[in-house]
């Protein structure tokens, strides 16, 4: 059976058949969107995409349209564009009709009121035809108020109808959920909207007020205050209004007295006065803020008899002629409160405005309070008592908990385990003490000295530690200017005074001479020469003969005098840096022999701007020369002390 005859057959059992070529069985869509809004439309195809002839034009209508002369002559007429579709929730968004209404309810259990009138507002929302009823909240009314009917479509009757804006008008009653509301008026927008829709509005009515509420608003009694002064009136008028004055109490005449700042509070509500202390950090006073508690202060007393127990009874109006009032306080004046004289030097802004309005006072120039500077007590350092170091004893004069003096950490690290040892003899009138020999050790890390006596058998003297590590000051040193013994003072034959005992240096280690030669710029030439003459006299003579450098006798004295003259001449050259010259020469001497090439030495001096063309400097270079092409620069560096 062909598919063309299929639709003509009746749809009867046994006559229906299934089209095997049909694969789609869904229904066509009847909803569409235009301008962002959904709208319904008629289906054009049926189930499975079959064409529907129900919503199509008939053949006669098609023939009529094709044979119409105006259409053939002038063409198809232009249809007017359809008006834009605007949904209700867009057209009436935030457009609300407001009606003023009231309802009346009975009050059965009250003798003062028989009924109650409650005012409400009826709001009609045009976008969804919903209604809500709201009663304005009255504070302390005791009635649950606010939203009486929530927003929704309110039913009108039992037939399922709802209230419409056409059912609302002024001067009518509307019943919602068993409660009848009488509408008296509406707002201008509601009136304009209803009149635009052709509804004739009734005349507005006056709002009815609750009689019991109106009765409560009336004053119960009227009376006149018998006196102008009323404490209750004063309290209600000036409650929480306080005058503040800044005052100073001069207590410098008493022992350990001072100028102490205070704040005076005058309470206008009851004419009481309070005096509070002003504390500062570390002022040395107990933290009690109130000097005079809040009370009425008497200004003038009644002449009392001698038998009146003033220390027992409280002060009352019978004992006082006049109390302190606001007119007794002024900026720049003194006032006596309970025996203390307070000088008022300033007040706050509220106090100024009060006196300006109440008394007409306009002069509130604050008085500058100058505190007397404390007398400087000179710090007298007591003399040294001999215990401990001078620096340690001096710290006891600076603080209650003395701090140890700072140490030179870099010096301690560089000179750690470096000790200069000397042999000393005790200078004493006793012949037995003259034979005693001691070892004096000087520690370069902290400049301390210790003395040790080697034990000698059968001498009758117990040896051992004679003096522990300590710093020894020179005779004549004071606490302000302490001068201690150093390696420069230890020459062969020199005398050292240690706590009343005198020691003579008789010998030294070879390490002492080597250390001083490696750091010759830090020690005087006399100290270095003294050790050379004592430890290596023969070697010095031989080296002098080889190098042809004067070192002993008259030649050494001439060299020392020449170096002094060169130093005086080089003082005129302020641009010279002695430390840089010394470092440059020592850096070039890599093997530490003390000898450099003369050409290299002269070029290095020219780069450092050393005036080698001067007569004295050139003569010093000639004396330090070792032959024609070598020069011993150590004696030359003596002219550039560090």
Automatic annotation (TrEMBL):
Domain spans labelled DM10: 93-198, 239-359, 416-520
Biological processes per GO annotation: cerebral cortex cell migration; cilium-dependent cell motility; mitotic cytokinesis; mitotic spindle organization; regulation of cell division
Record localization: Cytoplasm, Cytoskeleton, Flagellum axoneme
GO terms of molecular function: alpha-tubulin binding; calcium ion binding
Domain EF-hand intervals: 576-611
A Pfam family this chain is assigned to: DM10_dom
PROSITE patterns, sorted: DM10 (PS51336), EF_HAND_2 (PS50222)
Main location class: cytoplasm
Any GO CC annotation of this UniProt entry: centrosome
Alphabetically ordered keywords of this record: Cell projection, Cilium, Cytoplasm, Cytoskeleton, Flagellum, Repeat
PANTHER family on file: EF-HAND DOMAIN C-TERMINAL CONTAINING PROTEIN, EF-HAND DOMAIN-CONTAINING PROTEIN 1
Name assigned to this protein: EF-hand domain containing 1
Organism encoding this protein: Anas platyrhynchos platyrhynchos
Gene: EFHC1
């Amino acid at each position: 059976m062909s598919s063309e005859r299929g639709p003509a057959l009746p749809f009867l059992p046994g006559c229906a058949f299934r089209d095997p070529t049909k694969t789609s069985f869904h229904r066509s869509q009847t909803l569409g969107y235009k301008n962002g809004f959904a709208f319904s439309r008629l289906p054009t195809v049926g189930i499975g995409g079959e064409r529907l002839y129900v919503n199509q034009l008939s053949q006669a209508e098609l023939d009529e349209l094709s044979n119409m002369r105006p259409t053939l002559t002038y063409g198809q007429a232009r249809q007017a564009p359809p008006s834009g579709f605007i949904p209700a929730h867009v057209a009436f968004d935030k457009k609300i009709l407001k009606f003023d209404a009231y309802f009346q309810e009975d009050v059965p259990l009250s003798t003062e009121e028989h009924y109650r009138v409650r005012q409400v507002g009826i709001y009609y929302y045009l976008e969804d035809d919903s209604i809500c009823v709201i009663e304005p909240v009255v504070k302390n009314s005791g009635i649950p108020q606010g939203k009486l009917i929530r927003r929704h479509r309110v039913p009108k009757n039992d037939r399922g109808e709802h209230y419409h804006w056409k059912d609302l008008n002024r001067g009518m009653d509307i019943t919602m959920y068993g409660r009848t509301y009488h509408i008296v008026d509406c707002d201008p927008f509601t009136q304009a909207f209803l009149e635009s829709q052709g509804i004739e509005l009734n005349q507005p009515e006056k709002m009815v007020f609750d009689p019991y509420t109106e009765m409560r608003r009336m004053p119960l009694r009227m009376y006149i205050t018998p006196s102008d002064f009323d404490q209750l009136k004063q309290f209600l008028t000036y409650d929480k209004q306080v005058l503040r004055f800044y005052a100073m109490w001069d207590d410098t005449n008493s022992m350990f007295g001072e100028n102490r700042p205070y704040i005076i509070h005058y309470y206008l509500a009851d004419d009481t006065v309070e005096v509070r202390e002003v504390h500062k950090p570390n002022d040395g006073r107990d933290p009690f803020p109130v000097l005079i508690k809040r009370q009425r202060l008497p200004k003038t007393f009644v002449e009392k008899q001698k038998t009146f127990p003033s220390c027992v009874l409280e002060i009352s109006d019978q004992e006082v002629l006049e109390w302190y009032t606001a007119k007794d306080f002024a900026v720049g004046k003194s006032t006596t409160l309970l025996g203390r004289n307070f000088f008022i030097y300033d007040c706050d802004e509220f106090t100024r405005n009060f006196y300006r309005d109440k008394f007409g006072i306009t002069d509130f120039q604050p008085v500058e309070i100058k505190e007397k500077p404390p007398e400087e007590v000179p710090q007298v350092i007591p003399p040294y008592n001999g215990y401990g170091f001078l620096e340690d004893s001096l710290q006891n004069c600076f603080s209650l908990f003395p701090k140890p003096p700072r140490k030179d950490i870099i010096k301690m690290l560089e000179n750690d385990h470096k000790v200069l040892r000397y042999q000393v003899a005790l200078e004493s009138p006793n012949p037995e003490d003259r034979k005693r020999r001691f070892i004096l050790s000087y520690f370069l890390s902290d400049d301390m000295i210790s003395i040790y006596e080697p034990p000698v058998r059968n001498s009758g003297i117990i040896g051992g530690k004679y003096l522990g590590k300590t710093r020894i000051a020179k005779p004549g040193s004071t606490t302000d200017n302490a001068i201690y013994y150093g390696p420069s003072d230890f020459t062969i034959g020199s005398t050292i005074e240690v706590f009343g005992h005198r020691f003579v240096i008789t010998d030294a280690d070879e390490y002492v001479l080597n250390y001083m030669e490696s750091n010759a710029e830090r020690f005087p030439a006399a100290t270095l020469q003294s050790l050379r003459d004592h430890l290596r006299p023969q070697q010095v003579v031989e080296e002098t003969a080889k190098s042809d450098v004067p070192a002993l006798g008259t030649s050494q004295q001439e060299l020392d005098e020449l170096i002094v003259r060169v130093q005086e001449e080089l003082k005129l050259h302020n641009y010279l840096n002695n430390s840089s010259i010394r470092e440059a020469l020592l850096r070039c001497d890599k093997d530490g022999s003390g000898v450099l090439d003369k050409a290299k030495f002269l070029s290095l001096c020219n780069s450092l701007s050393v005036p080698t063309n001067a007569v004295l400097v050139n003569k010093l270079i000639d004396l330090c020369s070792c032959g024609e092409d070598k020069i011993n620069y150590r004696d030359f560096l003596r002219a550039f002390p560090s």
